[in-house]
Amino acid sequence: MLSFDPNSLSLPAGHYINGAFRPGPAEIELFRASDGAAYAGCAIADVATVDDAVEAASAALKTSGWGEVAPRERRNLLCRWADLIEAESELLAALECVGSTRLISQATRMDIAVTAEQIRFFAEFADKEGGMVAPTGSETMGMVVDEPYGVVAAITPWNFPISMAGWKLGPALAAGNAVVIKPSELTPFSTLLLAELAVRAGLPSGLLNVVTGDGSITGNALTGHARIAKVSFTGSTGAGRAIMGNIARHGVKPMTLELGGKSPQLVFADADLAMAATAIAGSILFNAGQACVAGARVIVDQRVADELTELLKLAMSGVRPGPTWDDQTTFSPIVSARQLERIEGLVSSAVAAGAEALIGGAAFDRAGYFFQPTLLTSVPRANPILSEEVFGPVLTLETFEDEDEALALADHEIYGLAAGIFTKDLSRALRVMRKLESGTVWINRYSRSRDHILPTGGYKQSGFGKDLGREVYHANRRQKSVLIQL
Fold it and tell me: CA 98 from chain center: how many Å?
């Protein structure tokens, strides 16, 4: 049994700076998504606290020589950290889901295991990726030397707290940097324990620091800090714009932004419709649609629209909402009362404008913040629910007559994070893939695998730069050109 009593957990408190927890007043009251109960508080790191964390990271880099440590030694230390993450998976999973949207069954089986995998994956780059000798004239030798940036900042969202931390921390530390990370103020606890485990594994104290707090105070202080050399952020497009503005006000530094999406799923008439319906439903039911890559727009050939609709209605039915700490629960809550209210408003406005809710369309009548899986058809083109990121278990369904119309419907003015294609015609799949403005395209599936070699990131206002893959490791190192006269 994975179920646990949420009231029995001892939660890490405050910030984690220079290898120790630093208490702070619980200035943000936290509510459990599963039942609406107030259960904890989150400290807000002010400018002085953020400065202490950055200075601790800078000092740790100097005293430990982490950036100059033999690459294999960096790899070994990070792999020991991954071992500890697996050893403490039960506690980490409980901390991950107690107040979040992550289910204990999924956190144990997926989130914690994937985080350990990611740490090991990026650790292996430390002694396998480097600079290059450049082809120059015979009287010179040219080299491109890779170096770490120094102290980098990471900001992670509330929907997948620990695995998103793994996305940021693994490559940054493997590349020889120190990190100050700010988890979402709604879900800070698993990240705090993650940092403590890093020190227990042997990473130098101060190399990884955690500051908690909101964006307006803690986030601004961190991203605008003069000693932060690079910023990596995952979250909404609006928050990404704010971070860019804050950085610009304080100077210039590189950043990686993985932002919002409104991703289409194109279903052609020759597709395996049962497989497509299962994949599409799974993509919007997973974490109750609270994922930036959620495939919220189904665009289907009108000849098979009715059949796919019936299959979707069946695949989206029978969920079991319940507390995240109950291993019998199969459907996640919405993260907050405010977000639940927003989803209700978007859906009710769409229905009032002429859309039809074939299933769902309202909140569950139970404690906590739960919204029914919802399938909307006949949505007016100008309705906001077709263009705005809902971040809930809501699918819209549109039909097309030909490939050109499918592509026109798939195109989004702002977003280009992910897309799905369902067809048995490989030529069509590759042709359509090339025309979609999306950073990730899935064909005959709609989900990531555990192949961390595939980078992820968006086009348009869905962001720039990449997480995962070789790309994110190299993004955590800067290049220096050297030319030697022989």
Answer: 19
Cβ partners under 8 Å of residue 481, min gap 6: 134, 142, 143, 144, 145
| Tokens at 61, concatenated | 């880099």
Strand, coil or helix: 460? strand
Q: Which residues pair with 17 in a beta bridge?
A: 20
Catalytic position from the list 55, 96, 185, 292:
292
370-379 pLDDT, tens per residue? 999 999 999 9
The answer to whether 74 touches 81, Cβ cutoff 8 Å, is: no
Residue 292 designated active-site: yes
- Confidence at 211, pLDDT banded by 50, 70, 90: very high
Half-sphere exposure in the Cβ direction for 16 (13 Å, CA): 25
Instruction: Select 264-451's CATH number: 3.20.20.70, 3.30.70.270, 3.40.50.1860, 3.40.309.10.
Output: 3.40.309.10
Q: Which pTM value belongs to this model?
A: 0.96
Q: What is the pLDDT of residues 405-418, one digit of tens each?
A: 999 999 999 999 99
Q: Identify the pLDDT of residue 306.
A: 98
Closest of 364, 75, 33 to residue 184, by C-alpha:
33
Active site (annotated) includes residue 258 = yes
Q: What percent of the chain has pLDDT over 90?
A: 98
pLDDT at position 319 over 90:
yes
Query: 64, 68, 177, 72: which is closest to 126 by C-alpha?
Result: 72
What pLDDT is recorded for position 14? 95
Per-residue pLDDT at 1 exceeds 80: no
Question: Where in the chain are all domains bearing CATH 3.40.309.10?
Answer: 264-451
DSSP assignment, residue 371? B
- Predicted confidence at residue 16, as pLDDT, reads 98
Instruction: Answer yes or no: are the C-beta atoms of 39 and 32 closer than 8 Å.
Output: yes
Reduced to 3 states, what is the DSSP secondary structure of residue 86?
helix
CA distance 127 to 133: 17
Q: Average per-residue pLDDT in the chain?
A: 97
User: Residues 196, 258, 389, 398: which is the catalytic one?
Assistant: 258
Q: Which two tokens stand for residue 274?
A: 């049962």
Fold of 6-259+463-485: Aldehyde Dehydrogenase; Chain A, domain 1 (3.40.605)
